[in-house]
Amino acid sequence: MRARRNGNLGCSLLAVLGSALSGCQPAAKSVDSLVFFPAPPAAPRVQFLTFANGADEVEPTKGSFEQFILGDEPVVQRVLDKPYGIAARDGVVYVCDTKGLSLSRLDFKNHTYTLLGASGPGRLRKPLNVVVDSLGYKFVVDVVRKQVVVFGPDDQYATAFTVPEPAHPVDIAYFENELFVLDNDDTCQIVVLDRTTGDVLRTFGGPGGEPGQFKIPNSLAISPDGHLYVSDTHNWRIQKLTRDGTPVWVKGTPGYTLGQFGRPRGVRVGPDGIVYVVDGATEIVQMFDADGNILMRFGGPGDLPGALGLPAAVAADASSIPYFRRLIHPDFKVEYLLFVASQVGRRLVSVYAFGAFPPGFKLPETKIKTLEPTSPDKGIGPVSGEEAAVEKPRPNPHQREQRD
Predict the structure, then answer these.
(1) Once rounded to an integer, what is the mean pLDDT over residues 342-362?
(2) Distance between alpha carbon 156 and the CA centroid of its chain, in Å?
(3) What number of other Cβ atoms are within 10 A of residue 204's Cβ?
(4) What global pTM score does this model have?
(5) C-beta of residue 170 within 8 angstroms of C-beta of residue 176
(6) How wide is the angle at C-alpha 11 spanned by C-alphas 6 and 13, nearest 5°?
(7) Is the pLDDT of residue 403 over 50?
């Protein structure tokens, strides 16, 4: 708290003395070139905006005058270690840190970086995924606690719901008064809990390859119209179900072209019903409509702005647009933002805008920088160590990544 008060004092002194306030602005990382997807000549629909790895990209930095007045303070590293699940609401991005064992709170509205679940009864042991409801309640799936840990609108611990044994909960979604917990233990089932009491209301699913069955499922989401989507990782597909588990459609085969999957991971649905599926093998995000038709992709492997590194999860949010407006092309009409968590690389949380330019508007191709898709260096097969916390693979002698 002392550092924050001093920071505010420094900005006030600068204002009184008429100095430049650039040192009191948030240090969000951005790029000079305009990175859009898809590549020309197709019409741009997704713009890469910025990224964050921790406090440095969220909180204000001191200007030279403020540093002169306040002096240097000890530097404390506050960075994301191993992001996995991600959610966003009203300028605040919540990231499950599976190595930092906490829920990181990146507040782009008030320019603060804090942690939830680092101590006390809400202490997190292995948070994997998170969703935020319209009231501001955070529901965090913790695979070690075998619980859904709930934090209130004030970010304080509220309660925890235990998932019945055998339990290996990996993701969560909500609709009205129900919580849907994806459990990828040997039962491969979806457990539906009462959102208020945590009581088990029903279960459905099971192991196998038939529609409505799963093999090491990774993620689930619910669309605005109440349909359930599941990334069925070792069946290399996504499924659309009703909320009682009735299959609607199944899409996907093993492969690296659009509509195929190398390793389907996080799935979320935008406010317009578009389904976003992260592929950890090809390191892209694929987009489908509600009927399962492939629309486009964004991201890709590499080290350039807009690329992803072993991506795990995606979130969509329209209420955060005002806090990233300065990074959006002035003629690009944004519908909502997309936040993607990567486990490795220089950009652990990447921020994109989904929208379109007005009819007739033509952005010169020379001003558009795109990422060309490349073939991944990972084969399709048993999951690797970085994914073991979620996907519980059999032992694999060809693992590339280090185990947690």
Answers:
(1) 95
(2) 21
(3) 17
(4) 0.84
(5) no
(6) 90
(7) no
